Amino acid sequence: MAEQMQVVEITQAGGPEVLRPTTRDVPVPGAGEILIKVAYAGVNRPDALQRAGLYNPPPGASDLPGLEAAGTVAAVGPNVSKWSVGDRVTALLPGGGYAEYALTHQDHALPIPGDMPMDQAAALCETAFTVYSNVMTRGGLQAGEVFLVHGGSSGIGTTAIQLASAMGARVFTTAGSDAKCAACRDLGAARAINYRDADFVEVLKAEGGADLILDMVGGDYLPRNVRALKNDGRLVQIAFLQGSKVALNFAQVMMRRLTITGSTLRPQSDGAKAKIAADLLTHVWPLYASGRIKPVMDSEFPLAEAAAAHARMEASEHIGKIVLKVG
Protein backbone atom coordinates (compact mmCIF):
# COMPACT_ATOMS: atom_id res chain seq x y z
CA MET A 1 0.00 0.00 0.00
CA ALA A 2 1.25 3.48 -0.83
CA GLU A 3 2.53 5.79 1.90
CA GLN A 4 1.19 8.94 0.21
CA MET A 5 -2.30 9.66 -1.12
CA GLN A 6 -4.09 12.27 -3.18
CA VAL A 7 -6.53 14.41 -1.18
CA VAL A 8 -8.52 17.62 -1.47
CA GLU A 9 -8.07 19.95 1.49
CA ILE A 10 -9.64 23.21 2.65
CA THR A 11 -6.95 25.89 2.42
CA GLN A 12 -8.97 28.55 4.25
CA ALA A 13 -12.59 29.39 4.95
CA GLY A 14 -14.35 30.50 1.80
CA GLY A 15 -16.10 29.49 -1.41
CA PRO A 16 -15.51 26.39 -3.54
CA GLU A 17 -12.24 27.85 -4.84
CA VAL A 18 -10.54 27.23 -1.47
CA LEU A 19 -10.62 23.46 -2.11
CA ARG A 20 -7.15 22.36 -3.29
CA PRO A 21 -5.75 19.00 -4.41
CA THR A 22 -2.58 17.99 -2.55
CA THR A 23 -0.87 14.91 -1.08
CA ARG A 24 -0.81 13.60 2.48
CA ASP A 25 0.36 10.53 4.35
CA VAL A 26 -1.96 7.55 4.27
CA PRO A 27 -3.55 7.30 7.76
CA VAL A 28 -3.06 4.25 9.96
CA PRO A 29 -6.12 2.64 11.54
CA GLY A 30 -6.28 2.62 15.33
CA ALA A 31 -8.15 0.28 17.64
CA GLY A 32 -11.59 -0.52 16.24
CA GLU A 33 -10.95 1.35 12.99
CA ILE A 34 -10.75 0.29 9.36
CA LEU A 35 -8.91 1.98 6.51
CA ILE A 36 -10.95 2.22 3.31
CA LYS A 37 -9.44 2.52 -0.15
CA VAL A 38 -11.98 5.00 -1.47
CA ALA A 39 -13.57 4.43 -4.87
CA TYR A 40 -16.16 7.23 -4.61
CA ALA A 41 -16.95 9.86 -1.98
CA GLY A 42 -20.27 11.60 -1.47
CA VAL A 43 -20.63 15.39 -1.55
CA ASN A 44 -22.95 16.87 1.07
CA ARG A 45 -24.08 20.22 2.48
CA PRO A 46 -22.05 19.75 5.68
CA ASP A 47 -18.91 19.60 3.50
CA ALA A 48 -19.73 23.06 2.17
CA LEU A 49 -20.45 24.35 5.66
CA GLN A 50 -17.08 23.04 6.84
CA ARG A 51 -15.39 24.65 3.84
CA ALA A 52 -17.04 27.96 4.73
CA GLY A 53 -15.74 27.74 8.30
CA LEU A 54 -19.17 27.08 9.83
CA TYR A 55 -18.96 23.38 10.77
CA ASN A 56 -15.75 22.27 12.45
CA PRO A 57 -14.85 18.56 12.54
CA PRO A 58 -15.15 16.86 15.93
CA PRO A 59 -11.99 16.29 18.02
CA GLY A 60 -9.75 13.62 16.54
CA ALA A 61 -11.42 13.62 13.11
CA SER A 62 -9.64 14.42 9.86
CA ASP A 63 -9.74 18.06 8.81
CA LEU A 64 -10.43 16.94 5.24
CA PRO A 65 -14.06 17.20 4.08
CA GLY A 66 -16.07 14.12 3.19
CA LEU A 67 -18.58 12.32 5.44
CA GLU A 68 -19.34 9.22 3.36
CA ALA A 69 -17.51 6.94 0.95
CA ALA A 70 -17.56 3.54 -0.66
CA GLY A 71 -14.62 1.31 -1.46
CA THR A 72 -12.71 -1.70 -0.18
CA VAL A 73 -11.11 -2.34 3.19
CA ALA A 74 -7.36 -1.74 2.82
CA ALA A 75 -6.26 -2.37 6.42
CA VAL A 76 -7.78 -3.04 9.83
CA GLY A 77 -6.71 -1.80 13.23
CA PRO A 78 -6.45 -3.75 16.49
CA ASN A 79 -9.67 -5.31 17.83
CA VAL A 80 -11.46 -5.21 14.47
CA SER A 81 -13.60 -8.31 14.06
CA LYS A 82 -16.31 -7.29 11.58
CA TRP A 83 -14.22 -6.69 8.46
CA SER A 84 -11.33 -8.16 6.51
CA VAL A 85 -9.01 -6.67 3.91
CA GLY A 86 -10.75 -6.67 0.54
CA ASP A 87 -14.33 -6.37 1.85
CA ARG A 88 -16.58 -4.01 -0.13
CA VAL A 89 -18.06 -1.40 2.18
CA THR A 90 -19.99 1.84 2.26
CA ALA A 91 -19.36 3.93 5.33
CA LEU A 92 -20.22 6.97 7.37
CA LEU A 93 -17.03 8.93 8.06
CA PRO A 94 -16.12 11.47 10.75
CA GLY A 95 -14.32 13.36 7.95
CA GLY A 96 -11.60 12.64 5.44
CA GLY A 97 -13.64 11.28 2.53
CA TYR A 98 -12.05 13.55 -0.08
CA ALA A 99 -9.00 11.30 -0.23
CA GLU A 100 -7.74 8.03 -1.68
CA TYR A 101 -7.85 6.44 1.79
CA ALA A 102 -10.14 7.21 4.73
CA LEU A 103 -10.59 5.95 8.29
CA THR A 104 -13.80 5.08 10.07
CA HIS A 105 -15.02 3.07 13.04
CA GLN A 106 -15.70 -0.54 12.11
CA ASP A 107 -19.31 -0.24 13.30
CA HIS A 108 -19.99 2.74 11.00
CA ALA A 109 -19.36 0.73 7.84
CA LEU A 110 -21.98 -1.41 6.14
CA PRO A 111 -21.84 -4.01 3.36
CA ILE A 112 -22.74 -2.65 -0.05
CA PRO A 113 -26.34 -3.76 -0.72
CA GLY A 114 -26.63 -6.47 -3.35
CA ASP A 115 -24.77 -5.69 -6.56
CA MET A 116 -25.06 -1.90 -6.20
CA PRO A 117 -22.21 -0.10 -8.02
CA MET A 118 -19.68 1.86 -6.02
CA ASP A 119 -20.81 5.31 -7.13
CA GLN A 120 -24.34 4.67 -5.84
CA ALA A 121 -23.02 3.03 -2.69
CA ALA A 122 -21.02 6.17 -1.91
CA ALA A 123 -24.28 8.14 -1.89
CA LEU A 124 -25.97 6.05 0.80
CA CYS A 125 -24.68 6.62 4.29
CA GLU A 126 -24.87 10.32 5.12
CA THR A 127 -28.44 10.53 3.84
CA ALA A 128 -29.65 7.12 5.07
CA PHE A 129 -28.24 7.63 8.58
CA THR A 130 -29.78 11.12 8.71
CA VAL A 131 -33.20 10.19 7.33
CA TYR A 132 -33.70 7.00 9.30
CA SER A 133 -32.56 8.42 12.63
CA ASN A 134 -34.62 11.61 12.28
CA VAL A 135 -37.74 10.45 10.44
CA MET A 136 -38.21 6.92 11.76
CA THR A 137 -36.50 6.95 15.16
CA ARG A 138 -36.73 10.55 16.41
CA GLY A 139 -39.81 11.53 14.39
CA GLY A 140 -41.62 8.23 14.88
CA LEU A 141 -43.21 8.16 11.43
CA GLN A 142 -45.96 5.55 11.15
CA ALA A 143 -47.68 3.97 8.16
CA GLY A 144 -50.67 6.03 7.05
CA GLU A 145 -49.36 9.33 8.44
CA VAL A 146 -48.93 12.51 6.40
CA PHE A 147 -45.23 13.35 6.07
CA LEU A 148 -43.81 16.57 4.64
CA VAL A 149 -40.13 16.78 3.68
CA HIS A 150 -38.72 20.05 2.43
CA GLY A 151 -36.09 20.07 -0.33
CA GLY A 152 -37.46 16.94 -1.94
CA SER A 153 -34.96 16.90 -4.81
CA SER A 154 -31.91 16.97 -2.51
CA GLY A 155 -30.04 13.87 -1.40
CA ILE A 156 -31.90 13.93 1.92
CA GLY A 157 -35.20 14.62 0.19
CA THR A 158 -34.99 11.88 -2.42
CA THR A 159 -34.04 9.36 0.27
CA ALA A 160 -36.80 10.51 2.65
CA ILE A 161 -39.49 10.37 -0.05
CA GLN A 162 -38.60 6.81 -1.01
CA LEU A 163 -38.12 5.47 2.49
CA ALA A 164 -41.26 7.06 3.92
CA SER A 165 -43.30 5.85 0.93
CA ALA A 166 -41.91 2.33 1.31
CA MET A 167 -42.97 2.36 4.96
CA GLY A 168 -46.54 3.34 4.13
CA ALA A 169 -46.64 7.08 4.78
CA ARG A 170 -48.39 9.61 2.52
CA VAL A 171 -45.56 11.89 1.40
CA PHE A 172 -45.68 15.58 0.52
CA THR A 173 -42.62 17.58 -0.45
CA THR A 174 -41.46 21.00 -1.60
CA ALA A 175 -39.06 21.79 -4.44
CA GLY A 176 -38.08 24.82 -6.48
CA SER A 177 -39.02 23.92 -10.06
CA ASP A 178 -41.59 21.93 -11.99
CA ALA A 179 -38.88 19.50 -13.12
CA LYS A 180 -37.80 18.87 -9.53
CA CYS A 181 -41.41 18.41 -8.49
CA ALA A 182 -41.91 15.86 -11.27
CA ALA A 183 -38.84 13.95 -10.08
CA CYS A 184 -40.23 13.89 -6.55
CA ARG A 185 -43.56 12.50 -7.73
CA ASP A 186 -41.74 9.81 -9.69
CA LEU A 187 -40.06 8.76 -6.41
CA GLY A 188 -43.40 8.31 -4.66
CA ALA A 189 -44.49 11.73 -3.39
CA ALA A 190 -48.27 12.06 -3.39
CA ARG A 191 -47.91 15.82 -3.89
CA ALA A 192 -44.86 17.90 -4.81
CA ILE A 193 -45.32 21.61 -4.12
CA ASN A 194 -43.38 24.15 -6.16
CA TYR A 195 -42.69 26.66 -3.39
CA ARG A 196 -42.34 29.45 -5.95
CA ASP A 197 -45.96 29.01 -6.99
CA ALA A 198 -47.84 27.69 -3.95
CA ASP A 199 -47.83 27.95 -0.16
CA PHE A 200 -47.09 24.58 1.43
CA VAL A 201 -48.93 25.68 4.60
CA GLU A 202 -52.22 26.06 2.73
CA VAL A 203 -51.68 22.79 0.84
CA LEU A 204 -51.09 20.85 4.06
CA LYS A 205 -53.95 22.54 5.89
CA ALA A 206 -56.27 21.43 3.10
CA GLU A 207 -55.11 17.86 3.79
CA GLY A 208 -55.78 18.20 7.53
CA GLY A 209 -52.18 19.00 8.40
CA ALA A 210 -48.94 17.05 8.54
CA ASP A 211 -48.22 14.47 11.22
CA LEU A 212 -44.46 14.90 10.73
CA ILE A 213 -42.29 17.48 8.97
CA LEU A 214 -38.57 17.09 8.21
CA ASP A 215 -36.97 20.48 7.60
CA MET A 216 -33.48 21.66 6.70
CA VAL A 217 -34.43 25.19 5.64
CA GLY A 218 -35.10 26.95 8.94
CA GLY A 219 -35.61 30.72 8.98
CA ASP A 220 -39.21 31.71 8.35
CA TYR A 221 -40.05 28.07 7.55
CA LEU A 222 -40.11 27.34 11.30
CA PRO A 223 -43.34 29.23 12.15
CA ARG A 224 -44.83 28.13 8.83
CA ASN A 225 -44.05 24.51 9.67
CA VAL A 226 -45.83 24.94 13.00
CA ARG A 227 -48.91 26.19 11.17
CA ALA A 228 -48.75 23.26 8.73
CA LEU A 229 -48.76 20.61 11.47
CA LYS A 230 -51.92 18.99 12.73
CA ASN A 231 -52.55 18.82 16.47
CA ASP A 232 -50.01 16.50 18.17
CA GLY A 233 -47.76 16.83 15.11
CA ARG A 234 -43.95 16.64 15.15
CA LEU A 235 -41.31 18.82 13.54
CA VAL A 236 -37.75 17.53 13.15
CA GLN A 237 -35.09 20.12 12.27
CA ILE A 238 -31.81 18.91 10.75
CA ALA A 239 -30.28 22.09 9.24
CA PHE A 240 -30.78 25.84 8.86
CA LEU A 241 -30.09 26.91 5.28
CA GLN A 242 -31.99 30.16 5.93
CA GLY A 243 -30.86 30.76 9.50
CA SER A 244 -31.42 29.34 12.97
CA LYS A 245 -32.95 32.37 14.72
CA VAL A 246 -36.58 33.33 14.24
CA ALA A 247 -39.55 34.56 16.30
CA LEU A 248 -41.98 31.76 17.19
CA ASN A 249 -45.25 31.82 19.13
CA PHE A 250 -44.81 28.90 21.53
CA ALA A 251 -48.40 29.24 22.72
CA GLN A 252 -49.34 27.36 19.55
CA VAL A 253 -46.87 24.62 20.41
CA MET A 254 -48.44 24.24 23.85
CA MET A 255 -52.08 24.54 22.88
CA ARG A 256 -51.78 22.10 19.99
CA ARG A 257 -49.39 19.70 21.80
CA LEU A 258 -46.72 19.93 19.12
CA THR A 259 -43.25 18.41 19.37
CA ILE A 260 -40.23 20.26 18.00
CA THR A 261 -36.96 18.36 17.99
CA GLY A 262 -33.85 17.93 15.86
CA SER A 263 -30.36 16.55 15.63
CA THR A 264 -27.04 16.70 13.87
CA LEU A 265 -25.30 13.48 12.94
CA ARG A 266 -21.58 14.19 12.99
CA PRO A 267 -21.13 15.06 16.70
CA GLN A 268 -22.99 11.96 17.93
CA SER A 269 -21.09 9.25 19.79
CA ASP A 270 -19.61 6.19 18.12
CA GLY A 271 -22.19 4.10 19.94
CA ALA A 272 -25.10 6.17 18.71
CA LYS A 273 -23.90 5.96 15.12
CA ALA A 274 -23.35 2.20 15.49
CA LYS A 275 -26.95 1.81 16.64
CA ILE A 276 -28.20 3.69 13.56
CA ALA A 277 -26.01 1.50 11.33
CA ALA A 278 -27.47 -1.64 12.90
CA ASP A 279 -31.02 -0.35 12.37
CA LEU A 280 -30.25 0.46 8.74
CA LEU A 281 -28.83 -3.01 8.13
CA THR A 282 -32.04 -4.56 9.50
CA HIS A 283 -34.72 -2.25 8.16
CA VAL A 284 -33.37 -0.32 5.17
CA TRP A 285 -30.56 -2.27 3.51
CA PRO A 286 -32.97 -5.02 2.33
CA LEU A 287 -34.95 -2.31 0.48
CA TYR A 288 -31.78 -1.16 -1.30
CA ALA A 289 -30.68 -4.75 -2.02
CA SER A 290 -34.05 -5.56 -3.61
CA GLY A 291 -34.08 -2.36 -5.67
CA ARG A 292 -37.29 -1.15 -4.06
CA ILE A 293 -35.50 2.08 -3.19
CA LYS A 294 -32.25 3.39 -4.67
CA PRO A 295 -30.03 6.45 -4.46
CA VAL A 296 -30.89 9.15 -6.99
CA MET A 297 -27.67 10.20 -8.74
CA ASP A 298 -27.16 13.68 -10.13
CA SER A 299 -23.55 13.93 -11.28
CA GLU A 300 -19.98 12.74 -10.86
CA PHE A 301 -16.75 14.76 -10.68
CA PRO A 302 -13.10 13.68 -10.41
CA LEU A 303 -11.64 14.16 -6.94
CA ALA A 304 -9.43 17.00 -8.18
CA GLU A 305 -12.56 18.86 -9.33
CA ALA A 306 -14.22 18.91 -5.90
CA ALA A 307 -14.58 22.70 -6.21
CA ALA A 308 -16.81 22.26 -9.26
CA ALA A 309 -18.88 19.68 -7.39
CA HIS A 310 -19.40 22.15 -4.54
CA ALA A 311 -20.34 24.90 -6.97
CA ARG A 312 -23.02 22.67 -8.51
CA MET A 313 -24.40 21.71 -5.12
CA GLU A 314 -24.57 25.30 -3.90
CA ALA A 315 -26.30 26.41 -7.10
CA SER A 316 -29.14 24.04 -6.09
CA GLU A 317 -29.50 22.81 -9.65
CA HIS A 318 -28.97 19.16 -8.78
CA ILE A 319 -31.52 16.41 -8.30
CA GLY A 320 -30.17 13.72 -5.99
CA LYS A 321 -26.59 13.05 -5.01
CA ILE A 322 -23.26 14.36 -6.30
CA VAL A 323 -20.21 12.12 -5.91
CA LEU A 324 -16.46 12.36 -6.44
CA LYS A 325 -14.67 9.60 -8.35
CA VAL A 326 -11.53 8.83 -6.36
CA GLY A 327 -10.16 5.38 -7.15
From TrEMBL:
Enzyme class: oxidoreductase
One Gene Ontology molecular-function label: quinone reductase (NADPH) activity
Transmembrane segments: none
Record domain Enoyl reductase (ER): where: 14-324
Protein origin, superkingdom: Bacteria
Tagged with keyword Aminoacyl-tRNA synthetase: no
E.C. code: 1.6.5.5
Keywords, comma-separated and alphabetical: NADP, Oxidoreductase
NCBIfam families tied to this protein: quinone_pig3
The protein's name in its UniProt record: Quinone oxidoreductase 1
